[in-house]
Specification:
single chain, 294 residues, alpha/beta, Rossmann fold, four-stranded parallel β-sheet, 46% helix, binds cobalt (II) ion
Length: 294
């Protein structure tokens, strides 16, 4: 017991000494000036229509944190390659962070612009972890995606109820199309549908690549005797999935599948990041990391 106390005291004194010597703040005994930055990380999109979403996020982050420099990164290699061919060069999170290190940032808040904490988010978490253990930044912290906590779920329900078309009647459905994932976090979509339906039984959440799929959503629409449905992407941008898988004219689009089941479809091609109510949630999540830098 006495030995433990001595060890504790030793650790405490050592911490004090290191802090006094500015040990933690870089080479040659000099304290690197504190420079806080934000890195916004999206999956990315090559569609020009998606740009409105990204610009809206940028505008909201700037107005919340006018004095903090902001950088962007896209996680999708395919999209970065497509954009590079058009002369637009976007960084991967790894390159963006290396650049920020080079620019002398000491504290970086990395904000995920993903919807759920799926594989993309966890890849990003691994990258942030690698930069953390490498040193170089004094602090680097990753912010939550859109849906992480129960508070997020409640805010998302509120945001959805506020953004569905005003002309929609209660006996008409709203079908949100999420991306979906093989990652366990895919469960957020069904959870969101459950919480939405406590407020409004004709709002549905399906996914392109996960559960619930389009066939199950079709069954549910038929069971509720739905004759008309508003289709909305539950993705930050109205990109390829929204345009083709949701609203396209191909036989296997959601619009075509529901139309064949006798349901009139009205697609709305607007990503969640075009609505401030959703963007506010991502911007709020930046508070977590940034509050640790004070
Ligand atoms: Co996809």
């Amino acid at each position: 017991m006495k030995k433990q106390l001595q060890l504790l005291l030793f650790a405490f004194l050592l911490t004090l000494c290191l802090a006094a010597a500015g040990w933690t703040s870089g080479g040659h005994g000099q304290t690197a000036p504190k420079k806080v930055g934000i890195l916004l990380v999206a999956f990315g999109s090559s569609k020009a229509s998606a740009q409105v979403s990204f610009e809206n996020i940028q505008k909201n982050v700037k107005s919340a944190y006018p004095n903090i420099p902001t950088r962007w990164a896209y996680t999708s290699t395919i999209i970065r390659k497509k954009l590079a061919k058009q002369g637009k060069f976007l960084d991967s999170p790894e390159v963006a962070l290396a650049r920020m290190m080079d620019e002398g940032f000491t504290h970086v808040a990395v904000q995920s612009l993903h919807t759920i904490g799926g594989s993309e988010y966890h890849d990003l978490r691994r990258t942030v972890g690698a930069f953390k253990s490498m040193g170089g930044f004094q602090r680097i912290i990753l912010g939550y995606p859109l849906l992480a906590t129960q508070k997020d779920m409640q805010q998302a329900v509120h945001a959805i109820l506020e953004t569905i078309p005003k002309e929609r009647k209660k006996n008409e459905a709203v079908v949100l199309m999420g991306h979906g994932s093989h990652h366990p976090s895919n469960a957020f979509y069904a959870s969101l549908m459950f919480q939405l339906q406590l407020k409004d039984p004709n709002i549905f959440v399906g996914t392109v690549e996960g559960y619930p799929g389009v066939d199950l959503i079709k069954e549910l629409l038929i069971r509720n005797n739905i004759k008309k449905a508003y289709l909305m992407p539950f993705m930050s941008v109205a990109g390829d999935h929204a345009k083709n898988d949701m609203a396209g004219d191909e036989d296997d689009s959601w619009k075509s599948i529901f139309t064949r089941a006798g349901i009139q479809c009205i697609p709305i091609l607007k990503g969640t990041a075009e609505y401030d109510l959703f963007v506010d949630m991502w911007v709020d999540h930046l508070q977590g990391p940034l509050s640790h830098f004070e």
